[in-house]
Amino acid sequence: MKAAVIGAGSWGTVLAQILADNGREVALWARNPEKAARIRETRCNADYLPDFRLSPSIQVTADLQEALEGAEVLVFVVPSKGMGTIARQAARFTDCRSQVILSCTKGFDLSTHKLMTDILEETFPHARAIAALSGPNLAREIAQKQPAATVIACRNMKEARFLQQCFLTPYFRPYTSPDLIGVELCGCVKNCIALVGGMLSGMGFGENAQAGLITRGLAELTRLGMKLGAHRATFFGLAGVGDLIATCTSPLSRNRSAGYALARGKTLEEITGGTRMVIEGINATPVVRELARTHQVEMPIIEQLYQVLFQGKDVKRAIEDLMKRTLKKE
Ligand SMILES: NC(=O)C1=CN([C@@H]2O[C@H](COP(=O)(O)OP(=O)(O)OC[C@H]3O[C@@H](n4cnc5c(N)ncnc54)[C@H](O)[C@@H]3O)[C@@H](O)[C@H]2O)C=CC1
Ligand SMILES: O=C(CO)COP(=O)(O)O
């Protein structure tokens, strides 16, 4: 079985290696031909993972048609803002009738605010199955083959189990779930909460503040998810609380680091301009806020985050405002 990994950032590169370690034939597609050639020759994606070597068996190409040729599993892992465009490009070469499509991206479509699997479902209406992978999966740790677990969600559980087998390695343990919406929503919203985690840390606050944020962030995420038809249990699993803990507390998280820098006085433009890496929580925040308003879900942390990111509110004041809210029972 061949898998095509579409997107050669940190996570795509590591996912390609996981599939290769599982014994699959793998093609890794990079948008930029020079970058693809460099990775192919050096077996190293120096921009993102300088200390990590890719197996010689992984085919690295900037030719999408070549990457997709003969692939049974298509793994989309481009930043959310590029998903629609790249998926439509891929659809020129295959209708995916006999293929399973997996999104490993954590974010919403910028223009429609839809989830990634909704975009993929629209682009590939005849696909064998559409699935999402999400969990506490910091790419750099997994690149070192440190143990990690994840969730693969698909409405068709037979296909979820098929993907579970494809990604299983001694260091990477996938669980299955039928809750596609819940698993994807967790991946989107935890990035926003992690921005706040970074802000708390940047303000010099300790573990009590962090634990309070993770717990109340989980409450907000769960409330929204329940309104959108997700399963409650998903939020208390790897994709929910698991990824909240990893992303809010790890200095490897780009979202957390961005929040930290904001609290230390950097502007959003300085932060995004200073990295080639994607910080998904920034674009996700207005979408989550809008979803909360549409579905009348109280999400005070998201509201304060929005005001800091897009209305120039001071981080210190935002935290004070959260602490002063009307008292209530847990
Ligand atoms: N890095 C990680 O630890 C994890 C990342 N993810 C998710 O995976 C997705 C991809 O993230 P990373 O691999 O970390 O990205 P990255 O920040 O390491 O690299 C981004 C890659 O996407 C390419 N790119 C940028 N804009 C693009 C566009 N419009 N169309 C196509 N390609 C574009 C860049 O050239 C680069 O190769 C994100 O949604 C992220 O949240 C999920 C789990 C773990
Ligand atoms: O999703 C991730 C870990 O599960 C990666 O988080 P960042 O995008 O914040 O680095």
Automatic annotation (TrEMBL):
- Binding-site positions, substrate: 106, 254-255
Molecular functions per Gene Ontology: glycerol-3-phosphate dehydrogenase [NAD(P)+] activity; NAD binding
Please list the residue ranges annotated as the Glycerol-3-phosphate dehydrogenase NAD-dependent C-terminal domain.
179-320
Sorted alphabetically, which keywords does the UniProt record give?
Answer: Cytoplasm, Lipid biosynthesis, Lipid metabolism, NAD, NADP, Nucleotide-binding, Oxidoreductase, Phospholipid biosynthesis, Phospholipid metabolism
Every Glycerol-3-phosphate dehydrogenase NAD-dependent N-terminal domain range? 2-159
Binding positions for NAD(+) per the UniProt entry: 7-12, 139, 254
Q: Tell me the active site.
A: 190
Name the InterPro entries for this protein: 6-PGluconate_DH-like_C_sf (IPR008927), 6PGD_dom2 (IPR013328), G3P_DH_NAD-dep (IPR006168), G3P_DH_NAD-dep_C (IPR006109), G3P_DH_NAD-dep_N (IPR011128), NAD(P)-bd_dom_sf (IPR036291)
Q: Which GO terms of the cellular component aspect does the record hold?
A: cytosol
Report the catalytic activity.
sn-glycerol 3-phosphate + NAD(+) = dihydroxyacetone phosphate + NADH + H(+); sn-glycerol 3-phosphate + NADP(+) = dihydroxyacetone phosphate + NADPH + H(+)
The family database entries (Gene3D superfamilies) matched by this protein are listed as: N-(1-d-carboxylethyl)-l-norvaline Dehydrogenase, domain 2 (1.10.1040.10), NAD(P)-binding Rossmann-like Domain (3.40.50.720)
**Annotated function:** Catalyzes the reduction of the glycolytic intermediate dihydroxyacetone phosphate (DHAP) to sn-glycerol 3-phosphate (G3P), the key precursor for phospholipid synthesis.
Q: In its UniProt entry, what is this protein called?
A: Glycerol-3-phosphate dehydrogenase [NAD(P)+]
Q: Which organism is it from?
A: Acidaminococcus fermentans
Source gene? gpsA
